[in-house]
Amino acid sequence: MKLKIEKPLWQTVGVGLLAGMRSASAPAITSYILSHHKSKDLDKSGLSFMQTNIIAKVLKYMAIAEFVGDKLPAAPDRIKPVAIAARCVSGALAGAGIFKASGGNAWLGALLGGSTAIVSTFGSFFCARQQLKHRVLSIR
């Protein structure tokens, strides 16, 4: 079955939001979809690796490892500069893949995915996590 990406803007915003919350998940999901629905627009680009089965599997295991590692006490805050950069790159990679697979401009997808990931990083940290932590501590 051929997949046609009809609204890359909203799909890129979605993976950018995901990258801000779980950085490895955005490229893992994007690569999984692209590996099962190959795009001729990606074939001759620098993003062609995103639609290979081996990369999809590697990214899936990285996402699982990130999920487990994020639960450890030594895990750094998501708003540390290195973590923000990783989330931005993750969103940019996923966004570029989506836009390029739909025949669009990969740089525009990268810009949109990366910037959405940054917004999502701070939004999920300050709005969701800090509020939840505050409410849980106030119950005790």
From TrEMBL:
UniProt KW keywords: Membrane, Transmembrane, Transmembrane helix
Matches recorded under InterPro entries: DUF4126
Any matching Pfam family: DUF4126
Segments forming domain DUF4126: 11-121
Transmembrane segments: 106-128
Top-rank taxon: Bacteria
Protein name: DUF4126 domain-containing protein
